[in-house]
């Protein structure tokens, strides 16, 4: 069976963990799969992966107008050994990465998936050996990234013009964006403090407006922070990408999604997701630590973030 | 040319719940080959491409009253649509009659039309009876029947080494995921009882190794490869010792073949035919209530091997 020449070499030096810039072990493979699936809006998609002493960041961009980010903190790993002097950054096919991790998720029992970087050909090496002595391994080719991902950020503490934000149940947000497919094209998101309301409006093949009233739909809202009226337009396909691929399991958890808009119209959509464990892993963790469950709950949360640049306001031809 | 038989309860169950659904998953039609002693289902054996499947069932495992006669040494073969056959079997079982009979008939819709062959299922109950006619192809010629027989004879040519497959449900879950990565699957088997499944594309090489599986036939004569040696190196060493085979197969064929779990096999083995002619999957069934192999039922899948690209 032909394998990339690097495979055997990488395997043989596996004993010396320090030769790798990163060696980590992850129990909740399905959690990583769910998070990465959320930022995969195209069939074939490339991502940039950045490793640091704090964790793993995976970024996906489109036309510099839409950016998706998954940040896996080191606390989510069972073991995280980082040895690099300079933060390694590499490009990888997100589609391939998700497909491979999915394969590991199907075989993972109570055993942790081991990730190592880099192999001799700078590949990402994944390996999982379970109790029944079944062993699954993968070597994923990486590439030198063409560009550095733009560092979008919204300053929550801006004293002059603080950003407006609201948080709702993820499933409600997804439903609203799906309904807005009918008018398509550009979508207006408007927040008003008096009365407190969030309005989504689309114009195109007909008009459609969806209002979330903060006062009357209290079960829908988790938070609402708005001290002034704000209104910006966004391309529908970008908005849709922020919720289209959230796995059903995340929607079921209903952790919520937070939308923040700064004074320039930069939109941040943040989904809070629980990193699920298999029943066997939960049992194992409970057995190994009496207060394991409490520690688990607090550390098993991750974020999926999207940044969307505003679109130009459509001109009314009438 | 005559054929008439009455199903046993177990026989109906074997066909309706197990073998016909499994065959339906790999193709729309199959050949039914009836001899004095056996009922044989053959899928795709007269074509060279695609998965071939052969199920051989002793007549006593299916029927308790079996009459067959033909000028071709009491052999009859025809092609049947599997979904129609399954539907007829299911509704016959649902009727819960006392007796289910099947016979070969020729009928014509009207006087002007040519008569057509049918397999007629007759389910008789206390108050009612149901007749179902399943259309079949005209009986196969002597030459075609000889081809079927040749395919059947080839079933006896087993690979020198057969390696037991791991739990089919877990294997199916794994292969379903691997299917998303690539269309070609490398299957490696060693005489030490290792099974390697690997997908290699331009972006990734991903695979799984199962160790310490049961081995039938020739076992590694030389000292077994050290257990601590890792996956690909272990396979490479076994290949150098002439104790392993690696073939490439179509991923879809492999996935489809794993639908064999519908037949509820008690043991599954996999081997590479001599000269890498095909990847063979062989299934064994235990006699009810025992752990002894039931020789009256057998099933084999043959997966075509893709050309090696090295």
UniProtKB/TrEMBL annotation, chain A:
CDD domains: PCNA. GO terms for cellular component: checkpoint clamp complex. Its main location: nucleus. InterPro entries: Cell_cycle_checkpoint_Rad1, DNA_clamp_sf, Rad1_Rec1_Rad17. One of its GO terms (biological process) is DNA damage checkpoint signaling. Keywords: DNA damage, DNA repair, Nucleus. SUPFAM superfamilies: DNA clamp. It is found in: Nucleus. Belongs to the rad1 family. PANTHER family: CELL CYCLE CHECKPOINT PROTEIN RAD1 (PTHR10870). This is Repair protein Rad1.
UniProtKB/TrEMBL annotation, chain B:
One of its GO terms (cellular component) is site of double-strand break. Gene3D superfamilies: 3.70.10.10. Its main location: nucleus. The keyword RNA-binding does not apply. InterPro entries: HUS1 (IPR016580), HUS1/Mec3 (IPR007150). It comes from the Eukaryota. GO terms for biological process: double-strand break repair via homologous recombination; meiotic DNA integrity checkpoint signaling; mitotic DNA replication checkpoint signaling; mitotic intra-S DNA damage checkpoint signaling; nucleotide-excision repair; telomere maintenance. It is found in: Nucleus. Keywords: Nucleus. Belongs to the HUS1 family. This is Checkpoint protein. It comes from Klebsormidium nitens (Green alga). The lineage of its organism: Eukaryota, Viridiplantae, Streptophyta, Klebsormidiophyceae, Klebsormidiales.
């Amino acid at each position: 069976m032909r394998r990339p020449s690097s495979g055997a070499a990488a395997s043989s030096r596996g004993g010396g963990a320090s030769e790798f810039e990163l060696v980590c072990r992850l129990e909740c493979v399905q959690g990583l799969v769910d998070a990465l699936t959320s930022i995969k809006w195209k069939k074939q998609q490339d991502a940039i992966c950045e490793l640091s002493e704090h964790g793993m960041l995976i970024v996906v961009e489109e036309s510099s107008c839409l950016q998706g980010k998954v940040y896996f903190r080191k606390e989510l790993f069972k073991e995280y050994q980082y040895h690099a002097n300079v933060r390694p950054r590499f490009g990888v096919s997100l589609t391939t990465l998700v497909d491979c991790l999915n394969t590991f998720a199907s075989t993972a029992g109570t055993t942790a998936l081991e990730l190592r970087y880099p192999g001799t050909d700078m590949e990402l090496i994944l390996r999982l050996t379970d109790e029944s002595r079944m062993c699954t391994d993968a070597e994923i080719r990486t590439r030198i990234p063409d560009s550095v991902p733009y560092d979008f950020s919204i300053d929550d503490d801006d004293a002059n013009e603080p950003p407006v934000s609201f948080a709702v149940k993820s499933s409600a947000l997804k439903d609203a964006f799906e309904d807005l497919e009918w008018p398509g094209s550009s979508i207006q998101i408007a927040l008003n403090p008096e009365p407190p309301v969030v309005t989504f409006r689309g114009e195109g093949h007909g008009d459609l407006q969806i209002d979330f009233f903060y006062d009357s739909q209290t079960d829908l809202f988790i938070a609402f922070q708005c001290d002034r009226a704000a209104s910006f337009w966004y391309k529908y396909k970008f908005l849709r990408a922020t919720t289209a691929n959230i796995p059903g399991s995340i929607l079921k958890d209903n952790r919520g999604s937070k939308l923040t808009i700064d004074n320039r119209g930069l939109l941040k959509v943040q989904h809070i997701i629980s990193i699920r464990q298999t029943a066997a892993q939960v049992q194992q963790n409970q057995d190994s630590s009496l207060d394991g469950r409490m520690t688990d709950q607090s550390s098993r949360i991750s974020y999926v973030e999207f940044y969307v640049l505003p679109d130009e306001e459509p001109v009314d031809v009438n | 040319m005559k054929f008439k038989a009455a199903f046993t309860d177990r026989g109906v169950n074997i066909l309706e719940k197990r073998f016909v659904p499994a065959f339906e998953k790999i193709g729309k039609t199959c050949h039914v080959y009836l001899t004095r002693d056996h009922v044989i289902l053959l899928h795709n054996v007269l074509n060279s491409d695609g998965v071939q499947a052969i199920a051989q069932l002793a007549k006593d495992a299916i029927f308790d009253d079996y009459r067959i006669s033909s000028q071709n040494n009491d052999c009859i073969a025809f092609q049947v649509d599997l979904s129609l056959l399954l539907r007829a079997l299911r509704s016959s079982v649902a009727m819960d009659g006392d007796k289910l009979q099947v016979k070969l008939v020729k009928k014509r819709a009207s006087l002007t039309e040519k008569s057509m062959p049918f397999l007629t299922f007759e389910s008789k109950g206390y108050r009612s009876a149901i007749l179902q006619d399943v259309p079949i192809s005209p009986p196969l010629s002597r030459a075609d029947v000889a081809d079927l027989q040749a395919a059947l004879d080839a079933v006896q040519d087993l690979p020198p080494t057969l390696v037991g497959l791991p739990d089919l449900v877990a294997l199916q879950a794994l292969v379903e995921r691997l299917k998303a990565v690539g269309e070609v699957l490398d299957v490696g088997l060693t005489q030490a009882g290792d099974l390697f499944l690997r997908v290699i594309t331009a972006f990734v090489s991903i695979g799984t190794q199962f160790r310490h599986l049961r081995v039938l036939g020739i076992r590694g004569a030389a000292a077994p490869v050290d257990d601590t040696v890792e996956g690909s190196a272990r396979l490479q060493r076994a290949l150098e010792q002439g104790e392993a085979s690696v073939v490439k197969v179509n991923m879809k064929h492999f996935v489809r073949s794993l639908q064999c779990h519908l037949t509820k096999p008690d043991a599954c083995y996999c081997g590479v035919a001599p000269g890498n002619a095909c990847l063979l999957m062989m299934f064994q069934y235990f006699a009810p209530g025992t752990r002894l192999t039931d020789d009256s039922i057998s099933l084999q899948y043959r997966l075509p091997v893709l050309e090696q690209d090295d």
